[in-house]
Amino acid sequence: MTIPRFLRPRRRRPRPALAVLLVILAAAALWALFTPKPPLLEGIPFSTAVLDRHGELLRLSLAADERYRLYTTLEEIAADLQEATLLYEDKYFFRHPGVNVPALARAAVGTYLGGGRRMGASTITMQLARLRLGLDTGSVTGKLRQLERALAYELHYSKKEILEAYLNLAPYGGNIEGCGAASRIYYHKASNRLNLPEILALVGVPQNPAGRNPLALKRTDPGDSALNRARQRIFALWLEKHPEDSGQAAMLRSPLEVFSPADLPFAAPHVTTEAVLRFGGSRPARATLDSRMQNLLERLIHAMVERHAPLGVNNASALLLHWPSMEVRALAGSADFFKDSIDGQVDGTRARRSPGSTLKPFIYALALDQGLIHPGTLLYDSPRSFSGYDPENADQVFRGPLSAAEALRSSRNIPAISLAGRLGKPGSGGEGASGPDLYDFLRAAGINFEHGREHYGLTLVLGGAEVSMRDLAKLYAMLANRGLLRDLSFFEEDKGGSASGLLSPEACVLTLRMLQGLPDGQKVSGAVSSRAVIYGKTGTSNGFRDAWTAGIFGPYVLVVWVGNFDNTSNQVFTGARLAAPLFMDIAEAVWAMEKFEDLPLRRLEGLNLTRVKICSDTGDLYNRLCPRQEESWFIPGVSPIEDSRIYRRILVDLESGMRACVDAPGRTEWQVWEFWPTDLRQLFQRAGIMKPSPPPFMPECGIGENPGGLPPEILSPKSGMVYHRSLSRPEGAVVTLHASGDADVMEFFWFAGDKYIGRGGPDERLNWVPPGGTTLLRVVDNFGRSGQRTVQVELTE
Q1: Distance, CA of 645 to CA of 628 (rounded, Å)
Q2: What does residue 73 show for φ and ψ, rounded to 5 degrees?
Q3: Residue 717 — φ and ψ, nearest 5°?
Q4: Please, is 547 exposed, middle or buried when counting C-beta atoms within 10 Å of its C-beta (0-12, 13-18, 19+)?
Q5: Residue 282's Cα: distance from chain center in Å?
Q6: How many other CB atoms are there within 10 angstroms of residue 75's CB atom?
Q7: Is 118 left (phi over 0), alpha (psi -120 to 50) or beta?
Q8: Are β-strands 722-726 and 786-796 bridged in parallel, bridged antiparallel, or unpaired?
Q9: Where are any strands of DSSP class E within 371-522?
Q10: Distance of alpha carbon 615 from alpha carbon 719, whole angstroms
Q11: Strand 285-286 vs strand 176-177: parallel, antiparallel, or unpaired?
Q12: ∠ at Cα 582 (576, 584), nearest 5°?
């Protein structure tokens, strides 16, 4: 039966409560109106997400307050995630001014007048205010502060800015805040790659972060969890607006794959640690690394160290660089980042260490540019003293004369040091070329030295100064980039730097050709040896502390180091024994992963290069007297051009075998003889190769007859040196006199100005005590050919 209206009990109208609410809102609005613009996200610490070049997560760091909170723009958040959040949390978000007055009134009446359970009416903006200020909104003061700040946000910021801030601060369980961090941690995905079931699971968490933690889906039956029940309610709201998604109901009943913070990757630790320190959570840091190559590099280094552990090998570093883009694709600063016994957290690619012989290619490149050599130029590998510096070869063997290309490829020390001593001197090469010496070149390349040029001297050639692995990678990339020096790129922000030309393209191409081949005769069974050319150089530091191999293959530069961070030595720390095999293992694995072409020498058009015939035995331009010829690359106008003067036609008396002065048909004939300078003839003899002297002249020719040929060259004292002589000990200033002459020289005569010093054969050395000041030293051979040099002596007390 219907009760008459007048008999029904009258409901109390909450007019006083509404009035109070309106007064509170008005006060809050006035407060907000006269409050300065409040910060939205300024001052909030964020995590740093380090991504590889494909967007894969390498590392997610904790923010400064020990929370996972990843700044994510609204454009990077899935539109479905934004919409589902508003459907569940605040469907009138774009209509209210920060406070939903009707909803707030209903909540106030229901909570304080109706006596029912506490009802919530917080908008997204109000929740943001609570999160941002850490408010206790259960108190009147806290609620009033929340209302004021919500209105202030709406006054100073757009709706999109407010929504973005909320989605970056909303709690998602434990110490995880913001949907960006939650997506990366729980699903190992960026927030714009989530599917609908994953989105609906996340949306329900902020209302009850502890009770709806997604990790509960791993610990309990998904259907019985509070999170899954909330997800079903959100899905019902979603279907009201998107009935076309009803087919995904089955997916919601399936368990989700959920991860915990302990499952986060911590890859490429040296690079990602650098990223955390450098970027500090302002934006995700996109590294140039490739996760596949990074894993490969770390795995091969670890395997090498394990294999050689019985020999005392426990650490190594490597850097793989894509030289066309200068992007670092893989970097391992140590064999094990987490191993304290090897100082694993030290980044070995930054450490400055002796590079051994790995700088030699740049001596040859500079010599090519300065017209001192071409690849076939004959250089001398023989014992020599350089102002008291007496270098040897690693194998303790001197091989005598050999081509520049072979000298570099076999890493002979004396030819490299001799060339380095000639760099930077005007007029020393073809066309009077000059340029920087090795010290100035390396400084121009950005390498800082602790001392000046005089401190290092020629020891710089063999690793007398320290450089880093990053320096070496940049230098070798310059060879591949044809003389252009560019900085390494570790992150997107590093790209687009300037480039400077330090070498000519022609010198770089010829240096690479001279380096072509496997480093130190390494043998491989894989495809690298047959399909990808290696341009590599090994290095071993003095005292066996550092083993290096640096080189180029395809589009990559790879530098490998094996040693100890505490600088202890080990006889097995040689480039050929340890670093080169590891280099080849990595190169083979990279080739198997990514097939590539031989890029460094693929295109030679447009370069100032030509091929000319040279005499194989002498390295000079070929003439018809030379019995063997080959082709060598030349830089026209730069490379030294000289006809061979070793092979000469001489007139020989057939009866005596001596040189004749008059052609007598039937009694004499023209023969080709080798006229090697005396010092080179001695080198051949040490190498077991006999080079006979040309026959002497017949008596009737006269000993004073000048046969032409080469004038003597003074080998000691050195050119450009200043000698010091003590007045109290004049005998301590003895200078050795030594010269090289043409093949037919029998004797040298020495003069200091017009004063006769003494005489000796081509193999003999004289001792001389020079006077103070400047002296013109002359040497004359038995044919009257002469050479001279100025000697400077300073007198000291």
Answers
A1: 15
A2: -75, 160
A3: -75, 160
A4: buried
A5: 25
A6: 9
A7: beta
A8: parallel
A9: 378-381, 400-403, 467-468, 484-486, 499-501
A10: 29
A11: unpaired
A12: 90
Q: Which residues have a Cβ under 8 Å from the Cβ of 711 and sit 6 or more positions away?
A: 741, 742, 781, 785, 786, 787
Please report where in the chains the tokens 């700040």 appear, as a residue: 149
Query: If you write DSSP's letter for every residue of 100-138 in order, what string do you get?
Result: -HHHHHHHHIIIIIS--S------HHHHHHHHHHT--TT
Residue 717, preceding peptide bond in cis (omega within 30° of 0): yes
Strand pairing class (484-486; 713-716) = unpaired
Nearest CA to 700 among 769, 734, 651?
A: 651
| 3-state DSSP percent of the chain in helix, strand and coil, to 5 | 35, 20, 45
- Give me the pLDDT at residue 59, please: 96
Task: Name the phi and psi angles at 437, rounded to 5.
Answer: -85, 180
CB count within 10 Å of CB 682 equals 17
For the stretch 507-545, pLDDT in tens is: 999 999 999 876 655 554 444 444 568 899 999 998 899
- Which residues, including other chains, have CB under 8 Å from residue 89's CB and lie 6 or more apart? 124, 127, 203, 206, 207
Going by the DSSP 8-state scheme, the letter that residue 186 receives in this structure is I
CB-neighbour burial class of residue 396 (10 A; exposed 0-12, middle 13-18, buried 19+): exposed
- Judged against a pLDDT cut of 90, whether residue 320 lies above it is answered with yes
| Helix residue spans in 170-290 (DSSP H) | 179-182, 196-203, 216-219, 226-241, 249-253, 269-279
Nearest CA to 786 out of 674, 734, 719, 709 is that of 709
Q: Whose CA is closest to 479, among 372, 561, 557?
A: 557
Closest to 337 (Cα-Cα) out of 273, 264, 286, 289: 273
Residue 708 per-residue DSSP state: -
| Residues 118-139: tens digit of each pLDDT | 445 789 999 999 999 988 877 8
Task: Enter the tokens of residue 285.
Answer: 């840091």
Owner of token pair 């919530």: 120
Beta-carbon count within 10 A of 171 CB: 20
For 328, the token pair is: 């670092």
Angle (nearest 5°) at CA 461 between 567 and 732: 100
Residue 107 exposure: Cα atoms within 13 Å on the Cβ side: 14
Residue 212, token pair as written in the block = 């709806």
Q: What is the pLDDT of residues 35-68, one digit of tens each?
A: 788 999 999 999 999 999 999 999 999 999 999 9
Q: Sign of the CA dihedral 438, 442, 447, 453?
A: positive
Pairwise CA distance, residues 592 & 528, whole Å: 9
CA dist., res. 323 & res. 345, Å (int): 26
Q: How many CB atoms lie within 10 A of CB 443?
A: 13
d(CA 740, CA 135): 93
Angle at CA 310, nearest 5°, toward 587 and 316? 40
The residue behind tokens 């020989």 is 652
Cβ contacts of 195 within 8 Å, gap of 6 or more: 251
- pTM for the predicted model, two decimal places: 0.83
Name 695's Cβ contacts closer than 8 Å, sequence gap at least 6.
650, 652, 657, 658, 659, 673
Give which of 468, 473, 501 is closest to 323, Cα–Cα: 473
Q: In the chain, what is the straight-line distance between the N-terminal and C-terminal CA atoms, in Å?
A: 135
Write the single-letter amino acid at 28. A
**CA 680, CA 683: separation in Å to the nearest integer?**
5
Tokens at 383, concatenated:
């014992």
Tokens read off for 99 = 């406070």
Average pLDDT along the chain = 85
Instruction: Identify residue 1 by its one-letter amino acid code.
Output: M
3-state secondary structure of 507: helix
Beta-bridged to residue 593, according to DSSP, are none
Polymer length in residues for the chain: 797
- Sign of the CA dihedral with 386 first, then 391, 396, and 402 last: negative
| Structure token digits, residue 74 | 């609204």
To the nearest 10°, the Cα dihedral for 97, 102, 107, 108?
90
Strands (E), 323-396: 327-332, 352-353, 378-381
